[in-house]
Backbone:
């Protein structure tokens, strides 16, 4: 697949789709990780004398009230700080004012266009990939670079729409993601999958795709209790994905030698960080108890398996990570992986946030910037944002 390196950018208007969907609080950026991730591609375009035009969404726009809280102007300010240069900002997503700003740009200038999802206020033109909007945005540039890995599983006007109408390629962030994830296509063995998170339903496609490749799948998080229930183990008030018990039974029957479940859990009576907890065998959970983390014996069991692994992919925390009391299982195994230098890919979303909170994100082989995009890649699905460029 072509990258930004394959094109002459000199004096070209280069549209770059970034992922500036950063967490915000009171109009301030809480975490600028996604902005930093976009810098290598942006800087490359600047250094090669392009007129750089950036597009991104931020949050969801369902009504007028959503506009102000999802304004990208604070991202423009952060970019100016990080790039150490003035950044042009267009309040408009289309029209004469935007076009005039682009016409006045000099080589090396950077323009950030307002939140692409402002266009969703009128019939979801961005999110539904309105053909006319895609053509319009494409008309503003000479080349399109998609560098927003977090949205490549969506067919939006600002990625698929533009790519369908303009010479296109990928940026360095997407290239880095694809290179890292590609080791899972033909992984070294032993290959171990760690699967956490709340519901089985969210991970069915991933489990089905990876179970045939993996040597072991270590189950944790809320989804573990549906697997335990499928083995007729009483789980009390623990989270249950009742609709997918049969799926869990089928997996356990077919892949009994591959799927590993917790043997002990941290249980409590209320879903809160305040209540006392105790550690119990999974065979001993009372009707009024719920499991909120894997226990120390499970950690030890999983670490023994991981000690021999050549490649690990991990999606989803192993406990209720937002509660301090129930992040120990996740943190212990993250630390074990880092301390033993096990080649591990963190599959986006909550597990990357957990690793970041533990100060370990930059110590693993790869922490994916995608949430849904990474999951769909792991399911083996085609990703519309990439297919449009191919």
Residues:
């Amino acid at each position: 697949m072509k990258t930004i390196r394959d094109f002459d950018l000199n004096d070209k208007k280069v549209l770059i789709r970034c992922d500036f969907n950063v967490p915000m609080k009171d109009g301030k950026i809480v975490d600028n990780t996604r902005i930093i991730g976009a810098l290598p591609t942006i800087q490359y375009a600047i250094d090669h004398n392009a007129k750089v035009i950036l597009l991104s969404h931020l949050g969801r726009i369902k009504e007028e009230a959503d506009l102000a809280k999802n304004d990208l102007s604070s991202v423009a300010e952060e970019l100016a700080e990080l790039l150490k240069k003035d950044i042009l900002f267009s309040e408009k997503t289309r029209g004469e004012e935007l076009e005039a700003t682009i016409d006045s740009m000099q080589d090396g200038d950077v323009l950030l266009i307002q939140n692409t999802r402002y266009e969703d206020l009128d019939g979801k033109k961005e999110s539904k990939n309105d053909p006319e909007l895609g053509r319009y945005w494409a008309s503003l540039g000479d080349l399109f670079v998609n560098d927003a890995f977090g949205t490549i599983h969506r067919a939006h006007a600002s990625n698929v729409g533009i790519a369908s109408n303009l010479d296109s390629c990928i940026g360095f962030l997407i290239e880095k993601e694809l290179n890292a994830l590609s080791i899972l296509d033909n992984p070294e063995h032993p290959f171990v999958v760690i699967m956490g998170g709340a519901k089985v339903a969210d991970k069915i496609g991933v489990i089905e795709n990876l179970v045939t490749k993996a040597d072991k799948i270590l189950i944790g998080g809320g989804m573990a209790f549906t697997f335990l229930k499928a083995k007729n183990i009483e789980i009390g008030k623990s989270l249950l994905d009742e609709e997918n018990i049969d799926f869990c039974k089928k997996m356990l029957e077919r892949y009994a030698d591959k799927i590993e479940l917790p043997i002990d859990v941290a249980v409590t009576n209320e879903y809160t960080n305040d209540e006392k907890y105790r550690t119990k065998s999974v065979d001993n959970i009372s009707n009024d108890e719920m499991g909120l983390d894997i226990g120390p014996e499970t950690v030890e069991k999983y670490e023994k398996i991981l000690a021999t692994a050549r490649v690990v992919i991990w999606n989803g925390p192993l406990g209720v990570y937002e509660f301090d009391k129930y992040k120990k299982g996740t943190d212990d195994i993250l630390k074990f992986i880092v301390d033993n230098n096990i080649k591990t890919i963190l599959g986006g979303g909550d597990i990357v946030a957990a690793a970041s909170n533990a100060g370990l994100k930059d110590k693993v082989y790869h922490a994916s910037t995608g949430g849904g995009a990474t999951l769909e890649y792991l399911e083996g699905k085609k990703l519309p944002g990439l297919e449009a460029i191919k």
Summary: Residues 33-47 form the longest helix (15 residues). The longest strand covers residues 13-17. The chain has a mean pLDDT of 94. The chain has 15 helices and 17 strands.
